[in-house]
Amino acid sequence: MSLGLVRGLFFVAALSVSALAAASWYEPGPGVISSNGRSYCLSPALKPLTPASVQANQNLLLLVMGLSQGMR
Questions:
Q1: How do residues 1-26 score in pLDDT, each as one tens digit?
Q2: Which residues, if any, are the signal sequence (predicted)?
């Protein structure tokens, strides 16, 4: 076999392997889960969103300050 023919076959083999790898690489995107007509796959009950009142705890502030001082 000539060198050009071997290079061509190698190129075709490498291209087919990379095409198969690209075709089999499937990562599902984010989607909404719902149980529309699927009694076997129930989604959790949705709760109405209520704004939570965030109060800073003194112990939490001391912990954060202590952790930041410990990094020095």
A1: 799 999 999 999 999 999 999 888 87
A2: 1-21
What residue has token string 């129930």? 42
Cα atoms found within 13 Å of the Cα of residue 15, Cβ hemisphere only: 6
DSSP string, 10-46: HHHHHHHHHHHHHHH---PPP-----TT-TTSPPPPP
pTM assigned to the model: 0.37
What's the chain's average pLDDT? 78
CA atoms within a 13 Å half-sphere pointing along the CA-CB vector of 64: 6
Q: Where are the domains of the chain?
A: 3-71
Which pair of structure tokens corresponds to residue 10? 């190698």
Which amino acid, residue 69?
Answer: Q
